[in-house]
Structures are given as structure tokens and as C-alpha cells.
Amino acid sequence: MNEASPIRPDTGPGSSSDPDSPAQLKPAIGHSACPHDCPSTCALEVELIARDRIGRIRGARDNSYTAGVICAKVARYSERIHHPDRLLKPLVRSGAKGEGSWKQASWEAALDLVAEKFIAAEERYGSETVWPYQYAGTMGLVQRDSIHRLRHAKRYSGFFGTICVNAAWTGYAMGTGALRGPDPREMALSDCVVIWGTNAVSTQVNVMTHAIRARKQRGAKIVAIDVYRNDTMKQADLALVVRPGTDGALACATMHVLFRDGLADRAYLERYTDDPAGLEEHLRTRTPEWAAAITGLSVEEIEEFATLVGQTKRTFFRLGYGFTRSRNGTANMHAALSIAAVTGAWQYEGGGAFHSNSGIFGLDMDLIEGTQFADPGVRHLDQSKIGRVLTGDPEALYGGPPVTAMLIQNTNPANVAPEQRLVKRGFLREDLFTCVHEQFMTETALLADVVLPATMFLEHDDIYRGGGHQHILLGPKLIDPPEGPRENIFVIDELARRLGVGDRPGFGLTARQHLDHMLAKRGLGSFETFKQARWADVQPDFDTAHYIDGFAHPDGRFRFRPDWQGTPVNTKPPHNVGPQGEYRQLPQFPDHVELIESADAGHPYRLATSPSRSFLNSSFSETPGSIEREGRPEVMIHPEDADSEGIRCGDRIEIGNARGEVILNARVTDVVRPGTLVAEGIWPNAAHERGEGINVLTGADAIAPYGGAAFHDNRVWLRPA
After folding, report:
1. Residues 398, 576: contact at Cβ < 8 Å?
2. Can you say whether the dihedral through the CA atoms of 68, 464, 88, 623 is positive or negative?
3. Between residues 611 and 424, which one has the greater pLDDT?
4. How many helices (H) and strands (E) are present in the chain, helices listed first?
5. What is the pLDDT of residues 344-396, one digit of tens each?
6. How far apart (Å, rounded) are the C-alpha atoms in residues 144 and 159?
7. How far is Cα 31 from Cα 7, in angstroms, rounded to an integer?
8. CA–CA separation, 627 vs 684, rounded Å?
9. Where's the 4Fe-4S Mo/W bis-MGD-type domain (predicted)?
10. Is 79 exposed, middle or buried (CB count within 10 Å of its CB: 0-12, 13-18, 19+)?
11. How far apart are CA 379 and CA 156, in angstroms?
């Protein structure tokens, strides 16, 4: 555990605690962790100006992963937490749904109404008609996951989370058998860092911290692979721009070259992998020429990349989420992951392949989630298919009752979920009662019947796990919230009491009591002792992290031949959901599999909806700094495509497919390939003409074999608006 000082004000001449200096001349410093849906989970130093006000936020300098660096949007968090448009009072709808007419209510009256509606819905259709819906607006384990305790205690419909990690985690575990990998700080000890499928400059700034350190101190090469020349690509020594959904082809051609040119570590392959001979034979036809035709890369680019990683034993493959958000995304992850097994990079410090450490933390969630109440017979509903669920699709409902009541926390599905037209149509149903617990009047809140004001992360206690690194971090309450907002567990406990389950284990505890229980079971002391330490480094030892003692499959071998249905991963669908997507078409060995939504005559372009630098999903789209930096909703189009369509930079253009149409402004640029369109950031729907945003165009059909949403895999047509 890190030996660090407790939370305290800065001292010394000129500080607020110096009796000879003016009061509040220098703010106190509090310590926390970023709560947002980002693998970096940065350790934070927060300027505390008053009991209810913060100043600047900085990265903790003594945290070995954060290393003093955070993204600009979190550094400006005071814009968000002190925003004049924060929700401060419970609101009850007084006009038509979505009209925006509200009347204020007391907390007691608002919660009484929610409980009354839930009870009435259950009496008519049974408990599964109620669907608590949440996700990662906060990554705090107490505030995010306590909603499951209410779900299980009341036997409400289950929640199959699919919007983010499924394809990536599944593809990685198919190879390694576990969600763990080399210490991500080892990037700084690498001779080559491959940043694959993530725009780290915008979305995981700490990846760049350690990669650039390797470049400065060791002369390491940085390779970036993505579908457009984004800010991370501009930092790279070798930037490979592939067509969307073709990463598996690049990986296979790379491994073909490794075998062909004697760069495969055959001793490692024989000891640690399941079928190297079968893989080599399979790859004989997966030549650079074959991959060039699929990916759009040149043969020379593929050869250069393969030779670099084959000759550089200390190559660290940092595998992101972006390239898995295609209908073949799980296979793409597995193929890219397999390269490190062919080179034997796992053997070396600074080598191997890392995606997430989410499997290392060992925190007991049973009390928080109420798993002892869980009934395996209760149906689960797919998060990404919320539009289909709310519009009564029998397949999406798995033969159960309609959803007629919802509690929504930590997510904004009316903006971020696929198939937006179905989502909005579902929320506008008169027979659907929706309660949204939120910080701002999001587009989901605007469609609700009751809106409850929520605290922000500095206003309540919680604990966080850094999936992109190895720290468990505490986020204690540092400031008082405005009068009105309440933390998530307050809402859960108050509803449980009204719904007749508040006397069950886990309900009625404070966040600190939950944290005391969790920390004690993990051997990390109590809230108070952990508050002194601030975080715990739980990175496994080198041999475990690098699978030196064997991979986590029963035979100890890396699997080139995945068991697409039998591999146990926590993304595996519940029994009632079953196999997902075109799982029977998944390849026997790493390969490019043509499951993507390929362009056709009517839809000649492929659209990726990539993250922007100043937004994080739909968060920060309300803060002035982020809005100013992002400008307006735009779509990037290559000059050749713009010329052929008669489009100039800045023109209003319409893009569409069978799901709908959206108007944006054209940004004509050669950072994208011909035939590829990129729209960065999830802008509010209201920021677009017609009030419809980019997720009108994305589909909710599942990624094989364990689900997921293919946000970067859409074929579209394009025309001047």
C-alpha cells in the first residue's frame, strides 16, 4: 500500500493554514480519484476553496501510473460541479412527455410516487416489468452498483451490460484465459509500444505518458493503429490507418511475416501455446498482399510493422476498445493479441499485450449488489437493445412482460444507446413510468416522469478500480453538495424501504460502512486507514502478469484456437440471453471475418463514431470549456469523397441508412481514408438539426459471441443537405 500523507491543507508561508498569511490565500488539497468511464481512473489532487467549492484539479504526482497528468476536461471539473444548470430539486412531470414542463416536489413526495408506480406496475405484470437501468456515469462501486441490490431483492428484470466492454474483454480472455496483463507502467520500459485501436491522447492520456517516457529514455518506437489519423497517430513513429473492422487481417498478415522470416519464437510457441503448427499453416495464405487488399494499407507498411515487432522483443501491445466495436470485434481483439504470443514478447519486461487489469482486484461486491437475493430464473434484458425492449420487441423481451417502469442512474440512453429513434419512441410511451436520478437535465431526464437530483463524485464517498492500471483508489467526500442533490445509495435505500425490502442485508448502510466491509474482506483495512494511504497497488507479480507460469486456461496454454462458447468470462451472457451475434461464423484461428456492415451500392461509406477529446460519452457536453473546444457536430470526409459528392468544407450534409438520417457539417480532411467517415464525440441530440444525434445511425444487433454494441461499424449514404 502506498505510504502517503493524509488529506490535509498545504502548510508553510503563504498557505491558508499559516497564521501570518491571509485566510484562504492558498487552497487546501484533497485527494480523490476520477469517477468517469475511462481506464485511466486517475488519482487526483483537488483544490478545496471552501466547504462547498473546488478550484483546479491536477493529477496526483506521487501515483506511479497517473504521474501528475490528467485530461483537460477533468482538470476543469469546477465548470461541471459548479455549473448553474445542475439539477437541485426533485421534479415531477406536469405536461406531456418530453415537453419539459415540471413542478417541484419534496424528496418524500417524489420517492413516494416512484414506489407507488413501481408497486402498481408489479401488481399488473409481475416484478419483471420493472427494469432498473444503469451504467458507468460513475465507476464508483458503491454508488454505481447498489442498484443491483434493489434489483435482486425485488426480482426486477436483470441487466445484461453490453454497451462497452463485451467484445474487447471476451476477445482478450479467449487467448489468455484471464483479464490481466503486464504492468502498464512497463510501457516506459519498452523498446516499441503499439497503441492499437485507442486514441490515447484523447481518451487515455496516461498511456501516452508512459509511451513517450520510453521514447525519451530508451529511444522506443511508438506505433499507432486506427481508422483515421487522430492525435495519437500524429505522435507515432509508424501510423497505420486501416479500414474499419479490418484489424484482424493486419494481425494475420503480421504473424504470416513473423513465421515466414524466422521472427517467430518457436521455443516459446511450443511451450506456451496450443497449436502453433496449425496457426502457421492457417496463415500461409494470409500474406501482406492479401491483407493490403482488405485493410487499405500498403504491402510495405505491413512488412515494416511486422519486421519491427518481430525484431523488437520488448514490444508492448496496448490494445484498446475502439477496434473491437465492430461486429467482428471479438475476433479482431483475439487476432491482435495473438501477435505477442508468436513473438514471445510476454517473456520480457516491457513486453506482452495488455488490455485491462479488471480481473485482478478481488473486491467483494456481494453486499453492495445483494447477490444473495439473486434469482437465476429472472430474465435479463440487453442494455444496448433498450430501444427494442421499450418498443415491445418480443425477441428483446425474451417472452416476458413489457417494461412499464424504470429507475435510471448513471447513464443517458436517450443520447448514447444505439437505434435512437426506437429509444425515444419507447420512452414516450404513456404506459411507461420512468424515474431518472441525474446531475443535469439530460435528454433521458427530459423524457422522464420523475427526475431526482444527484450528487457528484466529490460530494460522496466511494472507491474505484483502475482497469487500465493496477490501483484501487479511494474517493472520499471532499465538499458538501448544494442543498437538494442526494447520493445514489440514498435513493436505493429509500425506495427499498418503501417497497418492503429495506430490512434486508446491505440496505440502510452508509457508503463508508459498505467500504469498511469491502476493504476488510480484501485485507486493506478500513475506510479511515485507506484514506491515509489513498490507493493500493495490487499489480500481480511479474510471472503472474506475464503468464510465465502458464496462461489461465486449464492446460496453461495461450489459445490460438478459441473456445468461442465455452470460455468463462464475466461478459458471458446469462442463460436466458444465450449466444450472441453470428457466433457460428467465428474463425477457428485468428482471421479476418467478414461480419461487418460492409459498404454497398446504396451505402458506399463506412462510419465510425469515435470519442472526442473534450467529451466523455455524454458527460462534459454541458460544460462551456468542452463545448468551446469541440465547436459543433461534424463528420470528417476525405477530399476525394467530398469532390465526388460536390461537398465543400463546412457544408451541411446528410448521412443516413435504414435506421435514420442525421445532418452534420462536413470537415473535409485527409486524416480519414476515402470511403471512411468519422464523427467524433456524442453531442446532445439537441445540438443537431432536427434534434437527432449520431446514434440514430448505429445498430443494436449484437457482436458475437458474448454481445456488445458495434458503434464503429455502420454503412451509410451521404449527400448535401
Report:
1. yes
2. positive
3. 424
4. 26, 25
5. 999 999 999 999 999 999 999 999 999 999 999 999 999 999 999 999 999 99
6. 13
7. 6
8. 11
9. 27-85
10. middle
11. 9
